[in-house]
Amino acid sequence: STTRRSGARSATSTAEVPLTATGGPAKGVYPIRRRRTRYVPAPGSGKTLLLGRVTRGAAATGETDFRYTCGYSNRVRDTAMPVTANEELLDYVTSCALPTPWAQFTLHAFVEHATGKEHLAMTLGDIGDGEPVLARVHSECLTGDVLFSQRCDCGAQLEGALRKIAAEGRGILLYLRQEGRGIGLVNKMRAYRLQEAGVDTVEANLQLGFHADARNYELCQPMFAQFGIKSLRLMTNNPRKIEAMEKLGVHVAERVPLLVNRNAFNNSYLNTKQAKLGHLMTPLAEAVAEDGEL
Predict the structure, then answer these.
(1) Residue 263 DSSP label
(2) Catalytic: 78?
(3) Strand partners of residue 91
(4) Are the C-beta atoms of 277 and 250 separated by less than 8 Å?
(5) H or E segment at 50?
(6) Quick one: DSSP state of residue 42?
(7) Which residues of 43-64 are buried (b: 16+ CB within 10 A; e: fewer)?
(8) What is the chain's Cα-based Rg?
(9) HSE (CB half, 13 Å, CA atoms) of 67?
(10) How large a percentage of the chain has pLDDT more than 90?
(11) Burial class (CB in 10 A: 0-12, 13-18, 19+), 199
């Protein structure tokens, strides 16, 4: 994959990022987007620090081939990280330790050029050894992931995937910022209102003028390539996601079902995903007697 390496500059200034009268970034300006960053060795640490803007000070060394060394790789080993996986689509920015109730993961941040959105990868163990990696490609769902909504199975799938990776001691989860199957949070709420009026999740998106599933997975290939991953044991119920990975050149060696939290409030939603979006609901989850009232 193509990597970007920042060379030394003769001078830098705050003029790199347009500012308002109050000193903040101008409207619509994303300070990291499309900007070459400098990775400077941290004295005596063997690691490096990312500087969002390099100044002409003692920290700038003038070297031309900096690499970020992630020293938090779950206490297994350090992982050399190139500055970016694919400069045409997104930039790799930085990494940090992320302790969770199930394991200490390493969290990696990427910024998409086209939208300025920040996407994440959570990794555990040695995932660059060429063997198929237990993986989850998870699209953002604020209502399910953060607010504990029972209208979908997203939050339970996120937790279930992290638990499986922790139990295995090796894996990766990509967290893509494409809320509501790609239509955004507010439009997802509008779709919820339509569902409360009697339509299903697919019909609601179509009535709002969107595709039934507007997600795009093209960022997955450079994100996986960042870690040397070419083959997955993919945790998904969605055959379209498997097809998307294969088209990107990321081999899916195995599908790992992720059937969790079928309940009275998402029973109809899950049935619609199976009937209209082709989701694979096997092995069957425990049946729900009736739908919940909203």
Answers:
(1) -
(2) no
(3) 111
(4) no
(5) strand 48-51
(6) P
(7) eeeeebebbeebeeeeeeeeee
(8) 21
(9) 12
(10) 61
(11) middle
Q: How far is CA 227 from the centre of its chain?
A: 14
Q: pLDDT by residue (tens digit) across 32-50?
A: 333 343 333 433 434 433 3
5 touches 66 (CB < 8 A): yes
Q: Which of 38, 136, 181, 215 is catalytic?
A: 215
> Would you say 147 and 108 are in contact if contact means Cβ atoms under 8 Å apart?
no
pTM listed for this prediction = 0.71
Two structure tokens written together for 152 = 């979908």
Beta bridge partners of 254: 233
Question: Is 33 part of the annotated catalytic residue set?
Answer: no
Amino acid identity at 16: E
**Among the residues of the chain, which ranges form H helices?**
154-168, 179-182, 185-196, 201-207, 220-226, 239-247, 267-277
pLDDT tens readout for residues 92-102: 999 999 999 99
Residue 212 buriedness (CB in 10 A; 0-12 / 13-18 / 19+) = middle
Distance CA 237, CA 273 (A): 10
What whole-number distance in Å separates Cα of residue 125 and Cα of residue 269?
A: 35
The residue annotated as part of the active site, out of 38, 136, 213, 262, is 213
171: closest CA among 232, 87, 228, 245?
Answer: 232
pLDDT 10s digits, 155-165: 999 999 999 99
